[in-house]
Design brief:
Length: about 400
């Protein structure tokens, strides 16, 4: 405990005197539980000087008056008192990160949401509140409405192909009214706002015409540089704007053929010239063999994961950057819920965007088991390039780095 005090306050440690007001103590608890959990040392001044607790019935006051009446939903922290010397005791209140976010402070007939920013507890912004609701499973961002859209914003030809040939639904709508009802039931449209149905984020992303027109984060930014760092001489800098899924059509022989790229195919196609090279010699089949710097399936899997599991409340594109020695794929937003890099590598599954993941599974973009990192990306990179991918997770993004094989 003395070591904790010596290290001062932080995002997970707070000092309070025992005469703190109940709403002030509840505020600090709420902020920490909405963040990563932590400890509050009661009987310690802001400068780390130990004052000790002098209030009688202090544990009952903390657990009943503060935790029981001021914080919602209910949490059950750990409480212990430590005798520092003959005259002073310090109470230590410990709690883990909450699973029912957002937690609120109830005071004066209001509910306020706080978060921890460094060693300070602050009111959550609107964007931060949305993320907390999403982390608590109370908000599915992919089902939010996209203003300015309508059924005309969706490529019904792609959806018809999905119904008839991907999921074998022979009851394809024939009128606008039937289409509207079906798309509402599928979750691609919503009628919860305004007089006319609008697209959900999922519907627009999966099947929309140029979805970035209405949702600026719907695209992928693809950049290629000749060296190991970004500079102004990019070989490629493109913003892709197309639906997630590709389009198939029936040809004159009644065979289903690929007709138009989705954003996944589009990104891979644009990237191919920069991640492969043709041999100078011709093989026995009179062809030039192509050498790939990275396993294409590994790149495709990382890209699909970035799309399927990103935080759609973040108004920035997925970013794919190719350097001379590596490829980096940045998926906006922190990892969902209790997911960690270690859990992801182990094969733990907890999708953020359930509808999007289900549709991508229907198209076979996503491994049915949802364990592509463990069963594809890692073994393919080890086999071809002799190294494992690197994953960096922050509060703002998940970055996946695929290194090129050394010569």
């Amino acid at each position: 405990m003395l070591e904790i005090i010596a290290n001062d306050e932080s995002s997970r440690v707070e000092f309070k005197r025992d005469n703190v007001r109940p709403e002030q103590l509840a505020k600090e608890i709420v902020a920490m539980v909405n963040h990563q959990g932590g400890k509050i040392l009661l009987g310690v001044d802001d400068d780390g000087e130990i004052q000790g607790i002098k209030r009688k019935g202090f544990q009952e006051w903390v657990m009943d008056t503060v935790v029981g009446r001021k914080i919602h939903p209910l949490i059950l922290p750990s409480y212990e008192e430590i005798q520092v010397n003959d005259d002073s005791r310090v109470a230590v209140l410990s709690f883990a990160q909450g699973t029912s976010k957002p937690y609120v402070l109830r005071h004066r007939d209001r509910e306020e949401i706080y978060i921890r920013v460094g060693s300070v507890s602050k009111l959550a912004t609107r964007e931060q509140q949305v993320r907390l609701f999403q982390m608590g499973g109370m908000l599915h961002t992919e089902m939010l409405p996209v203003s300015g859209t309508s059924i005309k914003s969706l490529d019904l030809q792609r959806i018809e192909d999905y119904l008839e040939f991907v999921i074998a639904d022979t009851d394809v709508p024939s009128s606008v009214e039937d289409w509207t009802l079906r798309l509402l039931n599928l979750g691609f449209l919503t009628d919860e706002v305004g007089d006319e149905p609008v697209c959900t984020i999922a519907g627009l992303l999966l099947f929309g015409y140029r979805p970035r027109r209405y949702l600026r984060q719907a695209g992928i930014r693809l950049m290629v540089f000749g060296g190991k760092d970004k500079d102004y001489r990019a070989k490629l800098d493109e913003q892709l704007d197309m639906p997630l899924v590709g389009l198939w059509k029936m040809d004159t022989r009644d065979e289903r053929i690929f007709a138009s790229d989705g954003i996944i195919e589009g990104a891979i196609k644009m990237l191919k010239p920069f991640i492969s090279e043709e041999s100078d010699t011709i093989n026995e089949s009179m062809r030039r063999e192509k050498r790939w710097y990275y396993p294409i399936e590994a790149i495709r899997e990382v890209l699909v994961n970035a799309i399927a599991h990103r935080d759609w409340t973040r108004s920035i594109d997925i970013e794919i950057t190719c350097y001379s020695d590596r490829i980096e794929v940045i998926s906006p937003g922190a990892m969902q819920n209790s997911m960690t890099v270690e859990k992801m590598i182990a094969g733990y599954r907890f999708p953020r965007n359930v509808l999007i993941v289900d549709i991508l599974k229907d198209y076979k973009y996503v491994d049915a088991r949802g364990m592509g990192v463990r069963t594809k990306v890692i073994p393919l990179m080890e086999k071809q390039n002799g190294c494992k991918p690197v994953f960096e997770s922050t509060d703002d993004y998940l970055k996946t780095i695929l290194y090129r094989a050394t010569e």
